[in-house]
Design brief:
Elements: H1 5-10, H2 14-20, H3 51-60, H4 64-76, H5 83-95, H6 99-108, H7 114-126, H8 130-142, H9 151-157, H10 165-177, H11 184-196, H12 200-208, H13 215-227, H14 231-243, H15 250-263, H16 266-278, H17 285-297, H18 301-310, H19 316-328, H20 332-344, H21 351-364, H22 367-378, H23 386-398, H24 402-411, H25 417-429, H26 433-445, H27 452-465, H28 468-477, H29 487-499, H30 503-511, H31 519-532, H32 535-548, H33 553-565, H34 569-581, E1 590-595, E2 598-603, H35 612-628, H36 635-639, H37 655-666, E3 673-677, H38 683-695, E4 700-703, E5 708-712, E6 715-716
Parallel strand pairs: 3-4
Antiparallel strand pairs: 1-2, 1-3, 4-5, 5-6
Helix pairs in contact: 3-5, 5-6, 5-7, 6-7, 7-8, 7-9, 9-11, 10-11, 11-12, 11-13, 12-13, 13-14, 13-15, 14-15, 15-16, 15-17, 16-17, 17-18, 17-19, 18-19, 19-20, 19-21, 20-21, 21-22, 21-23, 22-23, 23-24, 23-25, 24-25, 25-26, 25-27, 26-27, 27-28, 27-29, 28-29, 29-30, 29-31, 30-31, 31-32, 31-33, ...
The structure holds one DNA strand of 10 nucleotides.
DNA sequence: ATAGGGTTAG
């Protein structure tokens, strides 16, 4: 089979997929902690009490039991009131993860001083037990112990998250009252706190108020902007930092790399890589993770992989960076492969690994693989993770089953906006606009506030179902939630208006847009013009597109399709010439079909399959039956329709048809056929597949470049509207 | 104290 490199990359190696199914479904439990014996010296008499003796003993401990023995000794020797030693015991208890034990020691102490309070508060803060932190902090105030610069960082950490931010603001006030408003240590934590709560404004105010900024202050504000979707500002501040002659440390570089990762600026990212080498930090394993992530996200997966391979034992985070880097750049097969490797090598996996692997499966599109992934997840400890469940919902929807997506949705506890949105988007993908809208109202009943993505999903759902009025209403609903429409939202409205034939209104709407119309908006107008053969307006839209996005093949193809639909064959030819001049060629069409968990690929007119003979017999049979059933091929315009597949061959040689024929001879009667196409459904194949679904009494599910079609009994779920 | 890998849309 003659396939180009990018195609080979997209297709999955079936043997990889099938071997995945035989893997164990349980995640390995962690090894139980082993307790090494502790050599406790002979009991000492009370007069032999020595602070440094006990201190070194505590330092040597490795288990709670050791601490217990020392504590007992302190009691025997009457030194149980030594604040420094008790603080040390508490700190060690925390370090061993024995927070309850540390708390007992603390509770036994009469009138704890500031050191003890700090130790136990810090302990809870390290274990992320924020409720206890706040409770103890309040009790400390009741006990009239004044906090100091060691108390505030732990307490502020506990104020992360919007609901706790009110507490954070109160603590901010107390920091002033206790005179720590110029303590860099405390102020740095305040910057980080506000930034983590998405309050970048207040974070900036605190940062600007600092007179002696340390590397940590700069790093906090840089990562604050990087985390809050403003990487450009993060980078601006980074250059200010360098002007102030402060040398960035490796953590600062990690934050900057994150910003470049989001900006998708490989050139600048590389220059930071240069910085890393100049500063001799290239062996810093944690910096390597950021570099890997940066290169992977900017599409340089091979470079990223070389970093990965140079580590003898990659950390979990590095595995995750590599897997998600692959998954996000269309290297689904590699991503799933690495995940498989982790399982077979019994390497520890976390919810981030799961999420990234699920994302990759969503791209593969195999329902069987999706099911396997779901089973694996449900039998693991991540079955209630919101991120994982959201990814599963998305995966099932993209693998063709809204029903299974709904099952995951229903079993997800504590649904946030993203969960609801993923389900709404899923309904939209399958053209179930009504269900999407219903779910939106249910979501509001649950008092979950929609976001901009929710509306992209809703508007797309309306498009895929032709719900003009509902879409229009929803678009205006956005402002009630203070959501500014973005390009996608405008594009959806243009699509809605255009597809329902309101071309003039669509054009007026574009002219009145408060933001500069972008590629998606003009693209929507152009495809509407194609449907209604509005050549003049379509040419205008195409002109805008050629200026904004000159090297995107899709726009030329669309214009050519418009000309073809209006039978302006000369113009079709001109577009072809134009494309040639720019060195653009259209994508080759292919279809995948899943048979018994294996994906099989077919190109246009594909004759390479081992069962080619049987397939062509089936194709002939099908064509005969189609004719008898009264199917008339839409030859003329389709034959010139560049959007679809190469037309040198006859229409029934489109990859979709071949894949269906193969599916019919490879599965028992009544089995649902599941196909994935890289291009959009062509008019001719679409109506042929409707006929076929009735003739052979099969359900046929087709995922095209933009949505799903469910063919059944001669009808398609899209209502011929796509 | 400061950070890196994750979900919906594009």
């Amino acid at each position: 089979m003659a396939v180009n490199a990018s195609l080979t990359r997209k297709l999955c190696n079936p043997s990889n997929l099938t071997s995945l199914y035989s893997l164990p479904t349980k995640i390995r439990p962690l090894d139980p902690a082993t307790v090494s014996p502790f050599e406790f010296p002979a009991p000492v008499s009370s007069q032999a009490f020595d602070y440094s003796f006990y201190a070194s003993l505590i330092n040597k401990s490795t288990h709670k039991n050791h601490l217990n023995q020392i504590h007992a000794q302190l009691l025997v020797s009457g030194s149980q009131d030594d604040r420094l030693l008790i603080t040390k015991l508490i700190n060690s208890g925390v370090a061993f993860g024995e927070i309850r034990y540390a708390r007992n020691i603390f509770d036994e102490f009469r009138e704890p001083d500031l050191f003890l309070w700090n130790a136990i508060i810090r302990g809870y803060s390290r274990r992320n037990m924020f409720g206890d932190v706040i409770e103890l902090y309040l009790r400390m105030q009741v006990a009239s112990v004044s906090p100091d610069c060691f108390t505030f960082p732990s307490v502020l950490k506990a104020c992360c998250g919007l609901p706790a931010l009110r507490m954070g603001c109160r603590v901010h006030g107390q920091i002033f009252r206790h005179g720590f408003e110029s303590d860099v240590f405390v102020q740095n934590v305040l910057v980080a706190l506000y930034a983590k709560c998405g309050q970048i404004g207040p974070a900036r105010v605190v940062f600007d108020g600092l007179c002696d900024r340390t590397v940590v202050s700069w790093t906090s504000i840089i990562s604050g902007y990087a985390q809050n979707g403003d990487p450009m500002e993060a980078l601006r501040i980074f250059s200010q930092m360098r002007q102030s002659n402060l040398k960035p440390d490796w953590i600062a570089l990690v934050s900057v790399l994150k910003a470049y990762t989001d900006v998708d600026d490989l050139i600048q990212g590389k220059s930071i890589h240069g910085c890393v080498i100049k500063m001799g930090l290239e062996d810093e394993p944690d910096l390597l993770i950021s570099l890997t992530a940066m290169y992977a996200k900017c599409g340089q997966v091979t470079v990223a992989r070389s970093f990965f391979d140079q580590m003898e034992t990659p950390s979990l985070t590095l595995w995750n960076a590599m897997i998600s880097g692959y998954a996000k750049n269309g290297y689904a097969e590699e991503a799933v492969g690495l995940f498989r490797e982790m399982i077979s090598k019994k390497i520890r996996i976390d919810s981030i690994t799961m999420t990234s692997a699920i994302l990759a499966c969503a791209q593969v599109g195999s329902l069987e693989l999706a099911r396997w992934m779901d089973d694996y997840t449900t039998s693991s400890e991540y079955r209630n993770d919101v991120f994982v469940n959201t990814a599963l919902i998305d995966m099932y929807a993209k693998c063709g089953s809204v029903d299974l997506a709904r099952t995951v949705f229903d079993r997800t506890v504590d649904k946030d906006v993203v969960v609801w949105s993923a389900m709404i988007v899923g309904y939209g993908l399958h053209g179930q606009g009504r269900e999407a809208i219903d779910l939106y109202y249910t979501m509001k009943q649950h008092e979950v506030c929609p976001n901009d993505v929710t509306f992209v999903g809703l508007l797309t759902a309306c498009n895929h179902s032709g719900l003009l009025e509902e879409g229009w209403k929803l678009f205006h609903h956005m402002r009630d939630y203070g959501i500014e429409p973005r390009h996608q939202h405008y594009a959806c409205v243009v699509d809605l208006l255009g597809r329902s034939g309101h071309l003039e209104q669509a054009y007026d709407f574009i002219m009145k847009m408060p933001i500069e119309p972008g590629v998606s908006v003009w693209g929507a107008l152009l495809s509407a013009c194609k449907i209604y053969r509005h050549v003049a307006l379509g040419e205008y839209a195409a002109q805008q597109l050629f200026t904004l996005d000159p090297y995107n093949t899709g726009h030329y193809v669309q214009l050519s399709n418009l000309y073809a639909s209006a039978r302006l064959w000369d113009c079709v030819g001109k577009v072809r010439v134009l494309m040639k001049e720019k060195g653009l060629s259209k994508d080759l069409g292919y279809s995948l079909i899943e048979i018994n968990g294996k994906l099989q690929a077919f190109l246009v007119g594909d004759k390479s399959h081992p069962r080619h003979k049987e397939i062509s017999e089936e194709l002939e049979r099908l064509e005969k039956r189609l004719k008898e059933a009264g199917f008339v091929p839409h030859t003329e315009s389709v034959l010139h329709d560049l959007n679809y597949e190469e037309t040198e061959e006859t229409l029934c040689n489109h990859s979709e048809r071949i894949a269906i024929a193969f599916g019919l001879i490879s599965t028992p009667p009544g089995t649902t056929l599941r196909l994935t196409k890289n291009l959009r459904a062509c008019v001719n194949c679409h109506s042929a597949t409707k006929f076929i679904s009735k003739l052979v009494n099969r359900e046929i599910v087709v995922r095209d470049a933009t949505r799903f079609h469910h063919f059944k009994d001669g009808f398609c779920s899209c209502g011929d509207y796509w």
